Amino acid sequence: MYKRGDRLQITGEPASRTNVERRESDVRKAIAKFLFDNVMHDRLDYSQVVSVEQSVILPERAMNPQQGESTMPHVLFVVNGYATMDDPVLGAKFRVQARTLRDLGCRAGVLAVNQRTGERMQHSSADGSLLIADEDDGIPIYRDYAWQLLPGMKHLDKAADARVRIGMAARAIEPYRDAHGLPDIIHAHGAKWSGCVAACLRDKFRIPYVLTEHMSSHHRKLTHKWQRPIFEEAYRKSKRRLMVSHALGSRLQRAVGQAVTPWSAMPNVLDPLFAEAEPTPAAASDQPFRFLNLGRMDPVKGQDDLLKAFASAFRGDPSVRLTIGGDGEMRRELEALSNRLEIHEQVEFPGRLEREQVVEAMQQASAYVLSSHEETFAIPLVEATALGKPVIATRCGGPEEIVDETNGVLVKPRRPRELSRAMQWMRQNVQTFDPAEIRRRCLEQYSAASVMGQCLELYNKVLDR
């Protein structure tokens, strides 16, 4: 029987590229036995389940180190994943938010509670720990891989299994606390699962949290019935509920009800890379007109509609080109559709682009096109307008709050003919837009300093400062 202070030793060599898979298998087996021996026999409360390291320990709660006298809050972001060397785009907006708060004078840290295991190959610590601590531009980052590595517990129902994982992820704050102290406030991004972990930390350490929702899975009925009570609890316990658009908030309120009310809208943050980049003039009349679309190649992004619209308007016209950047499950299908529509010589599929390449692609574009069926916000529209580019977008949620007559055109989703007419109109009227004014309005509303300044005011209200 295990008791507090006992160790669950998982022996083996330190993790490396050659043995990490074998060690992960050993960890899974050891954790499964540990949980079966203790949880099933009421020897271990769910709230006491630890985060997993090479030695799994049940320590006594340490006292919080003394905080400084600064009036600026110490903010911990709880997110589902954070950038790594092999995936620098993952959680890019959280990196921007943490750095901006730091620059505003706050202490900021990040706890990534659901980091994908594939990334662990390059980021394992020397002792094989599944909680990896490092720094990103001076900001402490704690990535917890235990969530992904914990084996399925068939003796528990799915809700109980999820609560075990939530409890384990919440314990990852203990090494953060020992090194940096407990935060004054937590900013969780997404009820699934970051908000659930924040709710657990709120109960255990009395740390208030605000919750920003980015996902449309709740109102699109992509969540399971057993998940709903867990997510609704995360909404209810938060001090403030923020939605990245009014459209998302309204739809989520209809789907979830009182658990998300009241809520307010707070947009995503523009990456400073785009704010600092030099806008480029529209292409000369003797240069090709370039439409650009970037994003995951997924049915919800509507890139098949975009190809059909482009073919209808510009097939065989070498002076008009289309670039669809990104990757995903539909890439081969989209490339095949381009061939069938006989536009393959006018359409480019460069694949996944790094952030600097995205800036370059937008600088070279004449206009940006978003063809999605559903968007909670639409960050590429903000990035394009930051570079002074006019845009075409579907009325699919978030774009309606970004696009107006000063910066672009809105069309109905799933309507290739309407999209085609808008693209023809843009080709003929692009010179009527003022790139400098498009950029100015974008930076005024979406710059990191503007959005995070609003967040800082919100934190201080929650903390009654």
Explain this structure.
With 465 residues, the chain is α/β, with parallel strands linked by helices. It folds into three domains: 7-57; 74-269 and 452-462, Rossmann fold (3-Layer(aba) Sandwich), CATH 3.40.50.2000; 272-446, Glycogen Phosphorylase B (Rossmann fold). Helices cover 38% and strands 16% of the residues. The protein has helices at residues 20-38, 92-103, 146-149, 158-170, 173-180, 191-205, 228-237, 246-256, 272-276, 303-314, 331-340, 355-364, 379-386, 416-429, 435-446, 448-462; strands at residues 7-9, 55-57, 74-79, 107-112, 131-136, 139-144, 185-189, 209-213, 240-243, 264-265, 289-294, 320-325, 347-351, 367-370, 391-394, 408-411. The strands form three sheets. The chain has an eight-stranded mixed beta sheet with strand order 5-6-4-3-7-8-9-10, with helices on both faces. Strands 13-12-11-14-15-16 form a six-stranded parallel beta sheet, with helices on both faces. Strands 1-2 form a two-stranded antiparallel ribbon. The radius of gyration is 24 Å and the shape is globular.
